[in-house]
C-alpha cells in the first residue's frame, strides 16, 4: 500500500502484485508481503520497470496525494536526491 501511496504504482492491486511477485527489501531484508510494516527511516529497495529504486522513508503518508506531495515523503538514494515518481507507471 505504501508504494501505491507514494505513487510508484497506479493501483493498490498493481503494487500488491509487484511486491508478491518480485519482493521488496526493507533495510536489506527481503519480503514478499505487501502488508509488511514500514517505519520512518526505513530504506526500501524494489524493482520498477527496468530500474532498481532505493528510497528512504521520511514520513508515512496518510493518503495518496498528488505526485509533488508524494515526493515529500521519501528521499531517493539511488540518485542522491528527492524526486517524484515518473508519470509512466508500471
Structure write-up:
This protein is an alpha+beta fold and 90 residues long. The chain has a single domain, classed as RNA-binding S4 domain (Structural Genomics Hypothetical 15.5 Kd Protein In mrcA-pckA Intergenic Region, Chain A, Roll), CATH 3.10.290.10. The protein is built from three helices and five strands. The protein has a five-stranded antiparallel beta sheet with strand order 2-1-3-4-5. The longest helix has 11 residues.
Task: Sum this structure up briefly.
Helices cover 21% and strands 24% of the residues.
Looking across the biggest beta sheet, what order are the strands in? Answer: 2-1-3-4-5
Assign the structural class, choosing from mainly alpha, mainly beta, alpha/beta, alpha+beta, or little secondary structure: alpha+beta
Number of strands: 5
CATH architecture: Roll
CATH homology-level superfamily: RNA-binding S4 domain
Supply the number of helical segments: 3
Q: Helix-strand pattern, N to C?
A: HHEEEEHE
| Regions with little confidence, pLDDT below 50 for 5+ residues | 80-84, 86-90
Terminal-residue CA separation: 15 Å
**Helical fraction:** 10-25%
Count of the domains:
1
Mean pLDDT, rounded to whole units? Answer: 87
